[in-house]
Design brief:
This protein is an alpha+beta fold and about 220 residues long. It is built from 7 helices and 8 strands. Strands 1, 2, 3, 4, 5, 6, 7 and 8 form an 8-stranded mixed beta sheet that branches. The chain starts with 11 loop residues before the first strand and ends in a 7-residue tail after the last strand.
Length: about 220
């Protein structure tokens, strides 16, 4: 992805697709593990296996969305990735295939880990509650180096992050999903078959028209 304006430390502008892949249930799972294994975390040379599991799941996400998207940044329980229009990334039905493929790989990795899990405490047993959701937006952003690291900045970057807080559960229930903004659908020529239309509203920004694609199975009640 090359610069379109600006040089060196001034950064440059680009336009493309912005993807967040977020592990649902991550915060509660790790907090539960920390509470259940506090002595192990404090005294042991190595952390509980739950930490390496999450690292492995994040690796799985990055591997399966590449080369269609490149990693921009790890954000705790989420992978923030991007593909610039200049890089001729995937379009059309290929976008949905990429997201479905990533979710399938994530589910397979989680199932494999579950068969090898040895701890049966309540917190560790909640490993099966982890799942994956996606938010995909399209727009402009600035690539800027901050403290030696490449950062993506701009209003459209803010939009994709704000969309992680949404009303999807009210539309399709508690289940994994891919939320695509209507702008992403148009710019990437993605078919909206099987998607549910919605509007998300946030303070200090216009309403965002989106479509939601259910993935996997609904959570058991």
């Amino acid at each position: 992805m090359g610069p379109t304006t600006g040089q060196g430390g001034q950064g440059y502008r680009a336009r493309g697709s912005l993807l967040l892949a977020d592990i649902s249930g991550y915060t509660g799972f790790l907090q539960g593990v920390a509470d259940a294994h506090r002595d192990l975390i404090i005294e042991a040379d190595e952390p509980p296996a739950a930490y390496s599991l999450v690292s492995s799941l994040l690796d799985t996400i990055v591997t399966t969305i590449s080369p269609s998207f490149r990693l921009a940044k790890f954000e705790g329980d989420a992978v923030f990735a991007v593909t610039a229009d200049a890089d001729a990334g995937i379009r059309g039905a290929g976008v949905i295939a990429c997201l479905r493929g990533c979710h399938a790989a994530f589910t397979a990795a989680l199932a494999a880990a579950n068969t090898q899990w040895t701890c049966t405490c309540y917190s560790c047993a909640r490993i099966h509650e982890l799942d994956l959701k996606f938010v995909l937006h399209h727009g402009e952003y600035v690539v800027q180096r901050v403290a030696g690291q490449e950062e993506l900045l701009g209003p459209d970057v803010n939009v994709v992050h704000r969309l992680l807080k949404n009303h999807v559960v009210e539309l399709i229930g508690a289940r994994p999903y891919a939320l695509l903004t209507d702008r992403a659908l148009r710019e990437l020529e993605v078919p909206a078959d099987g998607m549910v239309p919605a509007t998300e509203t946030y303070d200090h920004m216009p309403p965002v028209e989106v479509h939601v694609l259910p993935l996997g199975q609904a959570a058991a009640v």
